[in-house]
Model the fold of this input.
Amino acid sequence: MKTIKIIPSKSDAHRAYIAAALSGADFSRVVCEETSEDIEATKRCMSAMMDVEGAEDTMADLYCGESGSTLRFLLPVVGALGIRGVFHPEGRLAERPISPFKEELCAHGMKIDVVRASDEKINGMRDGTANIGDGTAEALISCDGKLEPGTYRLPGNVSSQFISGLLFALPLLDGDSEIYVEGKLESSPYVDMTMETLGRFGIAIDDETDMRFVVSDDDGNTRFVQSRIFRIKGNQKYSAPKKYIVEGDWSNAAFWLAIGAIGNEPIRVEGLRIGSMQGDERVLDVLDVFGVKFSVGEDRKSRIEGSNCYVDVYPSRDCMQGIVWDASETPDMVPAIALMGAFAKCETRIVNAARLRLKESDRLRTVTETLNALGIKVEEFNDGLLVHGVQSRANENGCDNANGYNDASEYNASESVRHLNSATLESYGDHRIAMMAAAASVSMAGTDNKIKLEGYVAVNKSYPAFFDIMKKLGLDSNLELL
Done:
């Protein structure tokens, strides 16, 4: 059995480093055994903000890289601290929407402008900090003004990161505030993660779930709207614990677990936490409904306190059945789910995933193009995917209307890899597409097929050691990095 010690969760690390900085504690209080570009972006921005807090006529250069979490978490924090700052996004981050978040922050005292990187006014206000990154950003985001307490309203179907950012900022203000999340809050586990972190740093939030309130339209009609309401007392103080240990990353673990399911050798992933607030812990549910053979055990030897389990996954191509998966709470798992669906009998449907179009790549398109290039038929819809599994590709009449399988004798798992083509693939600058492509190559072991992958360095965003681990474990025999 091949064993992987999973890296710390970048989602947990983002939150811990922000809370630590706001408490005045040194980053060494946060135990994070490995890092990534996204994690370093948050640490870099928090350090720059703390350096200029209270200084007049000084603008902080905030190099957030391609980290959407860093940008969206810190926009309201900059306002709460009264800091003048310029965010420097890279890659597609400059194109990803910050509305209606921007408008709500501006309605509460901030001034936020999206300007061209060459704008002389912005350049003239910088404090001389050396440029970090590739310097290709076409847009900068300048922030000024003091965030004010009050009532904030945001739709629940845009980005949970908007809510998390406000939860970090509003306790620092000199008055009480409320956040009304109108409609279902998608990716709600990420907000729950923020609430858990805030609690560990001494911040109290009153969370009222499943509330309903009346909205009147222009014609005087009324309707009830489901909402989640957060009530935040002002004038709170962050207080850091003696040690905050970042838990293992379920999002990245999903790719290793997929490798165990579609490959030829069992995989053990250590350093995970059962009962985590990370939404992608639900990868265990994904494995279960696919019919993957796996087990969960206690990780007594874990070096990370609180990360107390391991997951063993066994080759399962002979027993996987297509599924229907609602991705509204687990969008980051879609590439791994789509890949497993390619080896399941019949079809796998992924629904409520429209927000994937706003990631590092348009992930619905790039997942489709990547798997299609390997000979896997994937249909792309506005908010989801339909993946035709190996049996439905081999025998279109072999699947019934309920995603079932009519004649198991016709299915030979050992031959399923023959349906994957050799291909030269690109990462589209997206770390999760790069990992999905690499994971697909593991299923080709024992064949002459090979995946050549361009742009593999995209994994540095979240998992710099990913390909080193593949090589160390001998899982890269059918993968060539270009």
